[in-house]
Specification:
Length: 105
């Protein structure tokens, strides 16, 4: 059967895909990689058979602010990898939005 879209995969398979994506990020960005992490349901251990993969990659790129995403949605699984420079991440972390008191109690 030719199926375009997510298929049921195990947590073990999903974690293996995370390792493969991390290896590709290391190959692409080399020594610029400061951190790679998984977030969302996979990180909490609450992922189900059709859950997507969400990852974060922090790179050292002091010459410019970098913030973009890679996204794969065709095929048997979906993944999103957010890539952000450490400079941009620190700037964003130091910013408090005007509605923060309302949205964060």
């Amino acid at each position: 059967m030719n199926m375009n879209g997510p298929v049921e995969i195990s947590r073990k398979e999903r974690l293996q895909i995370c390792q493969e994506i991390a290896a590709k990020l290391h190959k692409l960005y080399k020594e610029q990689v400061l951190a790679i992490g998984v977030y969302g349901s996979v990180s909490r251990g609450t992922d189900g058979p059709f859950s997507d993969i969400e990852m974060f990659c922090v790179i050292d790129d002091s010459s410019e602010n970098v913030e973009f995403s890679y996204e794969w949605s065709a095929g048997p699984w979906k993944a999103e990898v957010n890539v952000i420079s450490s400079v941009f991440l620190l700037e964003a972390a130091a910013t408090i939005e005007g509605d923060w008191p309302l949205t964060h109690g």
